[in-house]
Design a protein that fits this description.
Elements: E1 6-7, E2 17-18, E3 26-33, E4 37-46, E5 55-60, E6 63-68, E7 96-105, E8 108-118, E9 126-134
């Protein structure tokens, strides 16, 4: 994550991105698209009711896709109830799966970026993962 966005823990297992508070914050991946085509983009997120309505954009090269967080989902962190000692790794959350839409991706290398276009509340979301599935 870039800007204010931070991982919930320095260990990657079960960690997620949090503290997404401005339109200058974004998450990016250096990636390679193996085959050009249409891909369904899904995100796994949590968002409290008061922060619903953020608009996010997924961008790769000349293609982009915009979607809005419309359903609140804000479960508590879990895992600590069974721990005898405070764990070093991240606690877990139940993330909601949301289809962002479909995006045309060109074959080749580039930067895939997820950024906020509008933030009506305090935060965009806590973000766990992005899933791209080729549909055409």
């Amino acid at each position: 994550g870039h800007g204010n966005i931070k991982r919930s823990n320095r260990f990657p297992n079960d960690s997620f991105f949090e503290n997404w508070t401005t339109v200058d914050d974004f998450i990016s991946w250096e990636c390679e698209v193996g085959a050009a085509g249409t891909y369904r983009a899904e995100i796994f997120y949590t968002c409290p009711k008061e922060d619903v309505g953020s608009t996010v954009e997924l961008v790769f090269r000349h293609s982009s896709l915009t979607g809005e967080i419309t359903v609140p989902h804000n479960p508590p962190l879990a895992g600590m109830e069974n721990d005898r000692f405070e764990r070093a790794e991240s606690y877990v959350k139940d993330f909601k799966r949301m289809t962002l839409g479909e995006i045309q991706l060109e074959e080749g290398e580039g930067t895939l970026m997820l950024r906020a276009k509008k933030i009506p509340g305090d935060t965009v979301m806590d973000f766990r993962l992005l899933l791209l599935t080729r549909v055409d």
